[in-house]
Design brief:
With about 260 residues, this protein is an alpha/beta fold. It is about 30% helix and about 20% strand. The chain has nine helices and twelve strands. The radius of gyration is 20 Å and the shape is elongated.
């Protein structure tokens, strides 16, 4: 059994850098999966787990023989875990390779434009999973999908819902090749009520709460929509807006409990 009790150990330094530095994470092609539930989800969906840290008494899922298993003290776990209250299990996993597809054959997609809050991005992935969206595009500096806070907010949906980073030109070409209209959420006089939109097959663009959609994304939109709300309210949280759109599109197909 391998055991580490020093914060200066190279593996501990490596994990701390994965947690704190996005540039190092990109360079290493790895991310931190914090907690037994997330680790189990990663394994279930074929994510390559490289190393698992655990404290005494922690319950580990069945791990492949190739996984490096390291016992650590609670002090060390607290030093590397991105959570305020570590759960005693932490995995280092390879970032899945997801090349941009040549064509989109699904029915519902989301385009996130400049959403920098990892909690929002993660929640939107979780919502996309709940309403059977076919994929999510991250544009213009969105929070990294594999950053610790984002992964935690997805509750495992990051392993189930395809998500791609791309530019607006790539997105435009892909949507045109796939025959998918792009609808943008915008508070404009010409915006249609989302309940009146044709949502059988589409991509919906959601901007940040503070800035809305960028002009370059708005220029790609075939039309814009709004979500009706009380006149005293100016906008919805981005994750809530995404949930409303996906629910409106899927409400006739969501199975009853």
């Amino acid at each position: 059994m391998e055991r580490i009790a020093s914060r200066g150990n190279p593996l501990i330094t490596h994990i701390r850098k994965l947690v704190s530095l996005a540039s190092y994470q990109r360079e290493q092609g790895a991310f931190v999966c914090d907690g037994p539930k997330l680790l189990k989800e990663a394994l279930l969906h074929g994510v390559a787990v490289q190393t698992v840290l655990y404290t005494d008494g922690a319950e580990l899922p069945a791990l492949p023989e190739s996984v490096r298993k390291v016992s650590v003290t609670p002090d060390i776990m607290g030093a590397v875990s991105p959570a305020k209250t570590p759960q005693g299990v932490l995995g280092v996993c390879a970032i899945p390779e997801r090349p941009l597809p040549c064509k989109l054959d699904g029915r519902r997609y989301l385009v996130l434009d400049g959403l920098q809050d990892p909690g929002n991005v993660g929640t939107i992935l979780r919502t996309a999973d709940a309403f059977s969206a076919d994929g999510v595009f991250l544009l213009n500096g969105c929070a990294g999908l594999w950053r610790p806070k984002t992964v935690r907010a997805t509750m495992g949906a990051a392993f189930r819902v395809p998500a791609w980073n791309c530019g607006t030109a790539e997105l435009s070409a892909l949507l045109k090749a796939s025959g998918l209209p792009l609808y943008g959420a915008a508070l404009r006089p010409d915006a249609k009520d989302v309940r009146d939109m044709e949502l059988s097959r589409f991509a919906a663009a959601i901007g940040s709460e503070g800035n809305g959609l960028s002009q370059e994304v708005l220029s790609l939109c075939d039309s814009v929509f709004r979500i009706p709300m009380a006149a005293r309210c100016e906008s919805l949280n981005a994750a809530i807006a995404a949930a409303v759109v996906l629910w409106e599109a899927a409400r006739d197909t969501v199975p009853a409990p």
